[in-house]
Amino acid sequence: MKKLLLSLTIATAALTASAQTTPITFGVKAGATFPTVSMSESEGSDLKLNTSFYVGGTVDFAIGETFSIQPGITFLGKGFKMNSTETEEGVNVKTTIKSNVWHIEVPVNFLANIPVGDDKFFIGAGPYYGIAISGKNKAEGSATQDGQTVKISTSEDVDFGKDGSHKRGEFGVNFLGGYQLSNGFNIHAGYGLGLSNIAKDADGIKVKNRVLSVGVGFSF
């Protein structure tokens, strides 16, 4: 019993010392996202960047003076814009689809910090897992024949249900880089490369998220 208590005491002391010597930094971040998707079959359609935003928080665990592990949680907008044009039997049809899907994402990034005086550059990468919580698809179209045009507009919620077309869960890889001032303020950019197919039962079509982001942050 005495040996067990002694071992627990030594282990507790070691963990306490480790926590005291490993700097832990909390941070907040916000900015703009420019999402789109890659689609295995998009013939006749022109995929474009959408525009949305993100807000989140991070916890940075320093590993020595150069490296750190930075998990976090982010609320962000993904989706895409797609334009298509086709002509059939003398009718010219133009369609624009805009999809906005809100996600909660948990990244775990591994960073390298490069000192520049009292400031620093940082670059990193790591995996993420995200869950789609809501979304909306909007479609605007026009049909023109013999100089006459008819326009239509529709909007519907993204269906994540059993018979829906969109999967909730998603995983991928993040890449990021930025510059942080000595006062904790930073500017950064990132790219999210989705690796999982977010489409359900879409006749073999694979759809994966692609998200470019630019923002600012502050570390406490």
Show the helix and strand layout.
Layout: H1 2-21, E1 24-39, E2 45-48, E3 52-63, E4 67-88, E5 91-116, E6 119-145, E7 148-157, E8 169-180, E9 185-194, E10 207-219
Antiparallel strand pairs: 1-3, 1-10, 2-4, 3-4, 4-5, 5-6, 6-7, 6-8, 8-9, 9-10
Keyword list:
single chain; 220 residues; mainly beta; Porin; eight-stranded antiparallel beta barrel; 9% helix; 69% strand; Beta-barrel_OMP_2; Outer membrane protein beta-barrel domain-containing protein; signal; OMP/PagP_B-barrel
Tell me about this structure.
This protein is mainly beta. The chain has a domain at 22-79 and 101-131 and 164-219: Porin (Beta Barrel). It contains one helix and ten strands, in the order H-E-E-E-E-E-E-E-E-E-E. The chain has one helix at residues 2-21; strands spanning 24-39, 45-48, 52-63, 67-88, 91-116, 119-145, 148-157, 169-180, 185-194, 207-219. It has an eight-stranded antiparallel beta barrel with strand order 1-3-4-5-6-8-9-10. Strand 8 and strand 9 form a beta hairpin. It is elongated and about 80 Å long. The model has no long low-confidence stretch (mean pLDDT 89).
